[in-house]
Design the sequence.
């Protein structure tokens, strides 16, 4: 059925169609499947209720409601979606949008906005949302006396500027004259319960207002829409994937330890797009559990209660809590418990910098060893611990090319502290303990802000180290689907001979034309340290020409060592090539980001 | 006569009727190709197929560490590609200053090892792509190059290393150098690519002798000074046998059409001993070389590469035709062959006084491998020696090293350096080992089908046990191992030879002439070590019991009827 036919039948108004179209453009395939299930369920519900005529011509009288989320990993989006559904169930008509896609000019016309915003790094907003923050915090932001709002901020209390992005919105809207619907709630990585409480309270409040204001009640469909193909496995219900391959892919004499993993996800229903991440629910290293039990003198066999469930302490420490890196929350908790004055002092606001340094040098076990407490009880230990979080890794394969598989590229985190080897949670599990055939709990974390263009636009991929992983997925996808579009890869690592990750595959793609160009920088082969940004500068003219021809540019890799330098280089290249000065170049790059043509996946 | 000569596969034919290598050479713009670009390609440590072929003419071979080829494949990495760089060293003679530079370059770029080859030159292995230029430029500083050390051209020219009289050696070595300089390609490509020289526009023919397509295949030239046959004269495409008395060289007997290489499982390919066709006076040397190479250039098989060596041209066109064509091109007929006698193709290890009162020291170097081992820092020792030595070094065709022209008063200093580095002149090696040659083979040679250099010590130990049981420990027997049938260690003239077929599997050949005058014959096909040792135990046992006084092992097998009933190939 063509769009024109659809209009003739009068099924959708032009306005409605525009909404559908706008929505369709923003959807990834998994979302599209979900939506189609949603409408199928909605349709079934309406038919059963005989309420075909009940589709309202206009929304009931009341204030507009917009739910905006800012996300990089998708948690805030998931919460936003749940909130929108809950609100719709109660007769409200929320509009849901990513801050990255939100037209800031609409802000002055908004009545109620609910924000769900994650914080990254040192208090930074999600990268795709930076444009919104710049507008809101800039001089052009309008007075918002008519606006009511509420903020749910997500963060990680291991970082000093905890939930800062949410705090910034909350603070700024108040300055602009807006009124709070609800106090801001800051959530740590175990955000589910506080987030649900915040959402519930707000929906209750708005639904009550609506009921009071609206004379004609909105006809609630008698059946709750049932997504037809809701993903069976997610963060809370990971799939038990079988490890197919787990090998070191750096050559002899490498200074790196990069591994390639292949996982069997057949039968999981897990669907991912190139650029998505795989969440791995890794258990802690039993060695670390033993160290903790040893330091506290606790019995691993003792039963403890975790979220209403009785489990052995050792089991709880292995599978339920973060037990390596300490958070300010643990300092708080252990300071109270041990009564150690030094810890007590570190709790204060003025000791923030010192606390950061202390936490860098002291894992949980180090704090316990340094400030021992006689006769520790398990509950007091667990009170300071945060729930164990899955680890996210960019997927290095394409589901189209590798049906039923997900590949990962992993550089284990290893360092020494207080004379002991310390490893990242997933690192140690994947690098040291798991063999092919073993089971690993995984789920897919969609990353719509790092995806191939829908059309055959040229792509420029910039990655260092394991940051090259998603590009392997990109090229596998383009090859498998026969998609056109030119491609150019910049790759950086330490040594050519040992660290040229997936070298043989890039060579093959170059030969076949799937990959059009490749520039590499190896920083430790010669006396001069060469990085990807140097190669970008060497190719400045062509790189700018590609951007002018509509290329999408991707950056993946280290957030500190790679992304800022690449960003600066990009501005420099545009400034030199366009000749419009640095400010104009910065605008150019900002516009690229706003048009989703400059996407970053950095960690 | 030429009416009857088949010209359907030679240079007279259009390119599309010849093998693909001919087109490649023709299109290469005199060996330039895209080598420059290939060196700059950062995506691979190697070069494209075409550039690899062309770089051979520049003395460079792309190789990879075959020990870790499979490991790298699993790691999704390309093979561990490095290059072998072979020096052109006519007659195997070098100065101490050149030795020191070779040592420097090997330490900087060549995996801290030098290989002395069976054709009297240095090979660097493990050279990565971006270090080829520094290596070649370093050689240039001491007036050495790698031109035509490989490729379809005249390779390095050999010359007997250790004659009793050093006067004749000096004269022949100088002629080898003159001839080598004469027969190498003239293209400016080498200077442009490796030294960074600008290309000079000229109306002159860039390769007046070779033309665009060079030779059909490699071409090997060597000089012997009887009675030594250390260079294995009969295995050369073109051999010169020096004739003359103590007063100097008068001329040369000319031998043509020798060659070792065979292709695995291809009976149309075979080893062939050179024919001695006549004598030329010394002043006809260059003319003779031009004539012989000219015949091969014009009549050699360019359609089928495995049949492109000069030995097949001689057999296919007929020795009479080839000889007549050479004479026509020389402008003078060959004179009758002068009498000569060869007695051995081995080296005499140890100190030897020359007629001029100086000393030559021949050091045994196992498989030509110069490296530092914890118990025997040979590389360091030779470096120390080169710093004080006032004479020359000579690399022998048996992969050994002669420290030549040591004045009597300098001998104690040389001996002290050797002692300090635990270097014995014979390396503690048995007669068997001293007369053994192994090619490089695994892990670097791309052609190798089985081990050679790395296997020789282990195999020699086992054969030594058999020799000891039969009281043959001090009997010189030539033994050679090649990792493939191509035969870089000249196996087909050895008394005992192994040529690789597969990992741990070899063809066993017996009965070659002690001084390289007779080809051996295959005795076991695709055999493992146990079968090889069984056969050796049996034949060497018979030899010990039944040999005539002074009779060599190969000769004994023929006399005793070991090959009875077999027809000579």
Sequence:
């Amino acid at each position: 059925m063509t769009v024109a036919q659809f209009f003739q039948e009068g099924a959708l108004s032009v306005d409605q169609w525009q909404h559908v179209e706008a929505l369709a453009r923003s959807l990834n395939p998994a979302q599209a499947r979900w939506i189609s299930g949603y409408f199928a369920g909605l349709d079934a519900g309406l038919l059963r209720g005989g309420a075909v005529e009940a589709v309202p011509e206009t929304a009931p009288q009341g204030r507009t409601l917009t739910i905006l989320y800012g996300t990089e990993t998708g948690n805030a989006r998931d919460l936003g979606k749940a909130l929108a559904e809950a609100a719709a169930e109660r007769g409200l008509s929320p509009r849901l949008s990513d801050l990255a896609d939100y037209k800031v000019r609409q802000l002055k016309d908004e009545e109620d906005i609910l924000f769900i915003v994650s914080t990254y790094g040192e208090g930074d907003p999600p990268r795709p949302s930076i444009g919104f923050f710049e507008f809101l915090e800039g001089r052009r932001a309008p007075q918002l006396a008519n606006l009511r709002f509420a903020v749910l901020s997500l963060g990680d209390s291991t970082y000093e500027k905890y939930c800062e992005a949410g705090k910034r919105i909350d603070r700024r809207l108040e300055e602009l004259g807006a009124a709070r619907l609800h106090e801001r709630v800051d959530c740590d990585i175990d955000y589910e319960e506080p987030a649900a409480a915040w959402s519930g309270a707000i929906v209750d409040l708005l639904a009550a207002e609506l009921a009071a204001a609206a004379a004609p009640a909105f006809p609630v469909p008698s059946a709750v829409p049932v997504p037809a193909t809701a993903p069976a496995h997610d963060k809370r219900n990971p799939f038990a994937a079988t490890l197919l391959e787990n090998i070191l892919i750096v050559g002899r004499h490498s200074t790196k330890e990069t591994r390639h993993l292949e996982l069997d996800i057949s039968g999981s229903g897990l669907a991912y797009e190139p650029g998505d991440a795989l969440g791995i629910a890794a258990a802690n290293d039993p060695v670390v559990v033993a160290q903790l039990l040893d330091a506290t003198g606790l019995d691993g066999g003792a039963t403890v209660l975790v979220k209403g469930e009785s489990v052995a302490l050792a089991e709880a420490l292995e599978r339920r809590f973060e037990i390596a890196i300490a958070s300010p929350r643990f300092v708080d908790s252990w300071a109270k418990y041990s009564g150690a004055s030094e810890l007590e002092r570190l709790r204060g606001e003025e000791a923030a910098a010192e606390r950061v340094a202390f936490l860098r040098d002291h894992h949980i076990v180090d704090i316990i060893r340094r400030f021992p407490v006689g006769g520790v009880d398990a509950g007091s230990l667990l009170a300071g611990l945060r729930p164990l979080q899955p680890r996210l890794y960019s997927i290095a394969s394409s589901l189209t090319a590798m049906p039923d598989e997900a590949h990962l590229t992993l550089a284990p985190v290893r360092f020494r502290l207080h004379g002991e080897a310390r490893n990242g949670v997933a690192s140690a599990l994947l690098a040291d303990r798991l063999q092919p055939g073993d089971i690993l709990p995984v789920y897919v974390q969609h990353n719509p802000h790092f995806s191939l263009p829908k059309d055959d636009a040229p792509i420029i991929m910039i990655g260092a180290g394991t940051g090259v992983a998603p590009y392997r997925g990109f090229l596998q996808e383009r090859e498998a689907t026969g998609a056109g579009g030119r491609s150019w890869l910049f790759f950086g690592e330490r040594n050519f001979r040992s660290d040229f990750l997936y070298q043989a595959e890039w060579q093959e793609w170059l030969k076949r034309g799937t990959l059009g160009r490749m520039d590499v920088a190896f920083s430790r082969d010669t006396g001069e340290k060469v990085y990807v940004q140097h190669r970008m500068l060497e190719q400045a003219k062509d790189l700018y020409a590609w951007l002018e021809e509509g290329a999408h540019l991707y950056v993946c890799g280290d957030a500190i060592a790679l992304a800022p330098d690449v960003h600066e280089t990009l501005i420099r290249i545009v400034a030199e090539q366009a000749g419009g000065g640095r400010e104009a170049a910065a605008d150019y790059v900002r516009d690229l980001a706003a048009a989703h043509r400059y996407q970053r996946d950095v960690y | 006569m030429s009416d009857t000569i088949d010209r359907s596969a030679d240079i007279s034919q259009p390119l599309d009727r010849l093998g693909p290598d001919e087109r490649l050479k023709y299109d290469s713009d005199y060996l330039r190709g895209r080598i420059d670009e290939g060196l700059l390609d950062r995506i691979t440590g190697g070069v494209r197929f075409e550039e690899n072929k062309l770089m051979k003419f520049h003395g460079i071979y792309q190789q990879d560490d075959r020990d870790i080829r499979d490991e790298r494949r699993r790691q999704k990495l390309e093979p561990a590609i490095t290059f072998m760089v072979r020096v052109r060293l006519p007659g195997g003679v070098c100065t101490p200053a050149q030795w020191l530079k070779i040592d420097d370059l090997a330490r900087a770029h060549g995996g801290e090892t030098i290989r002395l080859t069976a054709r009297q030159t240095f090979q660097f292995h493990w050279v990565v792509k971006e270090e080829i230029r520094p290596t070649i430029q370093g050689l240039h500083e001491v007036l050495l190059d790698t031109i035509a050390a490989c490729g379809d051209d005249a390779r390095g020219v050999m010359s007997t290393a250790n004659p009793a009289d050093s006067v004749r050696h000096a004269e022949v070595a100088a002629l080898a150098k003159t001839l080598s300089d004469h027969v190498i390609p003239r293209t400016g490509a080498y200077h442009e690519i490796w030294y960074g020289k600008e290309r000079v526009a000229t109306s002159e023919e860039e390769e007046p002798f070779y033309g665009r397509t060079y030779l059909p295949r490699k071409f090997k030239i060597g000089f012997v000074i009887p009675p030594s046959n250390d260079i294995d004269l009969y295995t050369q495409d073109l051999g010169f046998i020096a004739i003359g008395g103590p007063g100097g060289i008068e001329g040369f007997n000319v031998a043509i059409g020798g060659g070792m290489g065979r292709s695995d499982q291809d009976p149309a390919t075979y080893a062939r001993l050179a024919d001695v066709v006549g004598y030329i006076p010394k002043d006809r040397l260059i003319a003779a070389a031009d004539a012989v190479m000219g015949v091969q250039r014009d009549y050699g098989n360019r359609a089928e590469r495995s049949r492109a060596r000069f030995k097949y041209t001689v057999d296919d066109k007929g020795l009479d035709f080839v000889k007549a064509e050479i004479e026509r091109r020389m402008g003078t007929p060959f004179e009758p062959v002068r009498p000569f006698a060869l007695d051995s193709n081995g080296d005499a290890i140890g100190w030897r006084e020359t007629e001029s009162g100086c000393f030559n020291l021949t050091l045994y170097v196992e498989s030509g491998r110069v490296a530092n081992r914890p118990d025997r820092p040979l590389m360091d020792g030779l470096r120390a020696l080169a710093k004080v030595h006032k004479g020359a070094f000579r690399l022998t065709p048996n992969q050994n090293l002669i420290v030549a022209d040591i004045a009597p008063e300098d001998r104690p200093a040389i001996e002290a350096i050797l002692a300090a580095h635990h270097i014995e002149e014979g390396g503690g090696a048995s007669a068997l080992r001293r007369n053994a040659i192994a090619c490089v083979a695994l892990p670097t040679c791309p052609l190798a089908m089985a081990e050679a250099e790395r296997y020789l010590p282990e195999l020699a130990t086992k054969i030594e046990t058999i020799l000891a049981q039969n009281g043959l420990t001090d009997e010189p027997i030539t033994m050679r191992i090649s990792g493939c049938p191509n035969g870089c260690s000249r196996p087909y003239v050895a008394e005992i030879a192994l040529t690789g077929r597969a990992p741990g599997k070899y063809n066993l050949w017996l009965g070659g002439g002690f001084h390289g005058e007779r080809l051996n014959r295959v005795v076991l096909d695709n055999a493992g070590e146990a079968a090889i040792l069984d056969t050796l135990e049996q034949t060497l046992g018979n030899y010990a019991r039944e040999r005539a006084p002074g009779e060599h092992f190969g000769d004994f097998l023929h006399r005793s009827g070991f090959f009875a009933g077999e027809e000579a190939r």
